[in-house]
Amino acid sequence: MSYSILKNDMNYIPVSILVPAYNEEVTIIDTINSLLNLDYPEYEIVIINDGSTDDTAKVIIDYFNLKQVARPINKLVPSKEMKEVYENDGEIKVVLVN
């Protein structure tokens, strides 16, 4: 079976790519930009800023022009309370959870 037969929109489901980040201000933009180049029809990139003490969140917010939103998050695993959620208006959604 050829790859082209398998690669069609009916064989894909939307996915969320989770990116944990702790004090990543130097490398986080390169990481996210690499993920934005994936060859997949529909996905979002969710960056979880886990209490960084540097400017990780500010760098992401500024670079991707993220805006704070009141987005409900369904917590399926135990975690600390979220402070804020930010997202963009791009074709590929970039979400930052602090």
> Strand order across the biggest sheet?
1-2-5-4-3
Shape: globular
User: What's the number of structural domains?
Assistant: 1
Poorly predicted spans = none
* Helical percentage: 10-25%
Mean pLDDT score: 87
Number of strands: 5
Describe the overall structure:
The protein is of the alpha/beta class and 98 residues long. It has one domain. 22% of the residues lie in helices and 26% in strands. Strands 1-2-5-4-3 form a five-stranded mixed β-sheet, with helices on one face. Helix 2 (28-36) links the parallel strand 1 (15-21) and strand 2 (43-49).
SSE map:
Layout: H1 3-6, E1 15-21, H2 28-36, E2 43-49, H3 56-64, E3 67-69, E4 85-87, E5 93-97
Descriptors:
single chain, alpha/beta
In short:
By secondary structure, the protein is an alpha/beta fold. Helix content is 22%, strand content 26%.
